């Protein structure tokens, strides 16, 4: 089962058929209007981090969304939310559009599908947008997990070094996390797997070619007031499918863009 908040269409919880929580939600997250929640799956739109002129990580995660299906598909494991963005909303930097999120859950799978459409030639002044599912996956302890799929030869931009590009020929295999990591892997083709003590979690993306791998480790954890101190970082790893490098050209009026994780 899964839980969804109307603010940000945020998914804070996904429980598998074994009864175990698959997502990490910080116990120190601040629940208030207009503030992003730490953990779960925030929807990042229309920009990732500071890669744009609007709000950092986009304002969609902080706004109230509308549920479209009125609970009609709850028993089918599905819910649909949307947010309408107007050009006057400066936090979205001219990205007049409609963003729809469909959440589908079963005993073994959680799927999130985002759709961007309802743009107009007159309204949307932005040429492109960034998108990501900022997924915090719960782990027994960061030292217990093994990663599969972050292979040697997968190029990335290193956010810890001003997005310095590490080429495919220089990129190393990553199977463990033992320090701060913040990377945008580009054009990811391989399936990604978290191997923990009790289970394996497979993370896939559709039309979301980039993947962010993030864990703040101890020093940055100390600067994040909405994570448990001193070691909240040990309880999660972020693997985030997105469309970031390059950003996505806005669909023309009457067309749409979709991406899923």
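^ Assign residues to that structure.
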């Amino acid at each position: 089962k899964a839980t969804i908040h109307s603010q940000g269409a945020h998914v804070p919880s996904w429980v598998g058929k074994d009864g175990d929580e698959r997502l990490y939600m910080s116990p120190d997250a601040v629940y208030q209007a207009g503030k992003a929640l730490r953990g779960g799956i925030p929807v990042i739109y229309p920009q990732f981090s500071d890669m744009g002129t609007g709000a950092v990580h986009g304002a969609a995660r902080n706004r109230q969304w509308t549920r479209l299906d009125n609970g009609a598909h709850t028993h089918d494991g599905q819910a649909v939310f949307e947010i309408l963005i107007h050009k006057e909303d400066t936090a979205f930097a001219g990205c007049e559009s409609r963003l729809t999120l469909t959440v589908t859950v079963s005993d073994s799978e959680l799927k999130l599908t985002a759709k961007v459409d309802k743009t107009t030639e007159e309204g949307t002044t932005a040429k492109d947008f960034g998108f990501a599912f900022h997924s915090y996956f719960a782990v027994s302890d960061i030292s217990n997990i093994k990663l599969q799929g972050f292979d040697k030869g997968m190029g990335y931009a290193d956010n810890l070094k001003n997005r310095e590009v590490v080429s495919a020929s220089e990129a190393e295999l990553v199977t463990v996390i033992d320090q701060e990591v913040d990377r945008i892997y580009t054009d990811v083709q391989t399936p990604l797997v978290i191997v923990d003590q009790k289970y394996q979690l497979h993370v896939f993306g559709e039309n979301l070619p980039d993947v962010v791998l993030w864990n703040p480790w101890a020093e940055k954890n100390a600067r994040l007031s909405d994570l448990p101190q001193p070691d909240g970082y040990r309880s999660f790893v972020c693997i985030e499918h997105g469309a970031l490098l390059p950003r996505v050209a806005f669909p023309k009026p009457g067309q749409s863009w979709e991406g899923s994780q």
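The longest strand covers residues 236-249.
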